[in-house]
Amino acid sequence: MGRPETIEETAERVDGQGGRGIAVRVDHTVEAEVKQLFDRIKREQDGQLDILVNDVWGGDPLTEWGAKFWRHNLHDGILMQQRAVHSHMLTSYYGAPLMVARQTGLIIEITDGAGYGYRGNLYYSLAKISAIHLAEAMAADLREDGVTAVALTPGFLRSEAMLDHFGVTESNWQEAGRADPHFLQSETPYFIGQAVASLAADPNHRSKSGKRLTSWGLSDEYGYTDIDGRRPHWGNYAREQGFYSEEDDII
Predict the structure, then answer these.
(1) Which of 221, 229, 226, 227 minimizes the C-alpha distance to 201?
(2) Average pLDDT over the chain, rounded to an integer
(3) How far is Cα of residue 143 from the mean position of the Cα atoms in its chain?
(4) % of the chain exceeding 90 in pLDDT
(5) Under a CB-based contact definition with an 8 Å cutoff, are residues 150 and 129 in contact?
(6) What is the DSSP string of 94-111?
(7) The domain spanning residue 208 has which CATH number?
(8) H-type helices in 82-179, by residue range?
(9) In the predicted model, what is the mean pLDDT of residues 176-204?
(10) Mean pLDDT for the stretch of residues 65-71
(11) How many angstroms separate the CA atoms of 209 and 206, rounded?
(12) DSSP summary character for residue 69
């Protein structure tokens, strides 16, 4: 993706919030590296793995928007599945047994969109919908093992990449609304992070296993806000704009 952020900076942010961040370089498309990661967790954390968030993506530069699938670069389309689907499968394959051994845990598949509808590009759609079904299928297999698996989507994510795309920063991000009014309804990564934290803290999160969840729907349920105090609700906004299908009307 060519981003300047580093895993060391991420670990420092965890430390800054009172946790303990450990930066480990892993290519999640390489089985040996993924296995090595979870072997390390077994050794250093006594096998305790409470939350696993599958959010590997890297598909934006591979997506040719507006191209019919037979005119799209086939190699890039397949590579998108390797990065965004196969990596999740590898990671869950080696992570789930640690949770099953303790009969507890939460696996979250981050996706884009809550429904199964077409997302404007076959390869993009396949990757994002596959993440949803991975959560549903894992939930079915884990039903008797005390482990929860869900799919979770943000709304319009105000990531570092999107801020750069619009030429703004977090301090003046509203200015991008002149170029794209939808961006005024965006949310920071902190908002979906709050969704993950709220789910993990909910003693009844197993009741949601296999479901398609949204950052805004869980905000309605748990009451958390974004880092700026806002409570963006992409679901309500999308309905008002008329581009939200009934199939997407879930938690």
Answers:
(1) 221
(2) 95
(3) 22
(4) 92
(5) no
(6) HHHHHHHHHT-EEEEEE-
(7) 3.40.50.720
(8) 87-102, 122-141, 160-166
(9) 96
(10) 97
(11) 5
(12) T
CA 124 – CA 220 distance, rounded (Å): 29
The pLDDT tens digits of the residues spanning 102-148 come to 999 999 999 999 999 899 999 999 999 999 999 999 999 999 999 99
Q: Is residue 15 part of a domain?
A: no
Q: Please say whether the beta carbons of 231 and 249 come within 8 A.
A: no
Dihedral pair phi/psi, residue 227, rounded to 5°: -65, -25
* Strands of 147-153's sheet in order across: 51-54, 105-110, 147-153, 212-214
What band does 158 get if pLDDT is binned at 50, 70 and 90? very high
* Sign, Cα dihedral of 17, 21, 26, 32: negative
The whole-number pLDDT of residue 245 equals 57
Q: Is residue 13 part of a domain?
A: no
Q: How many CA atoms lie within 13 A of 100 on its CB side?
A: 13
DSSP run (H or E) holding 10: helix 7-16
**Would 1 be classed as within a structural domain?**
no
Tokens 């884009």 — which residue? 112
| Residue 219 in domain | yes
Q: What pLDDT does residue 247 have?
A: 52
Determine the structural domain holding residue 48 and report its residue range. 26-248
Q: How many domains is the chain partitioned into structurally?
A: 1
The pLDDT value given to residue 249? 47
Q: What are the structure tokens assigned to 209, written together?
A: 């296993």
CB 156 within 8 A of CB 182: yes
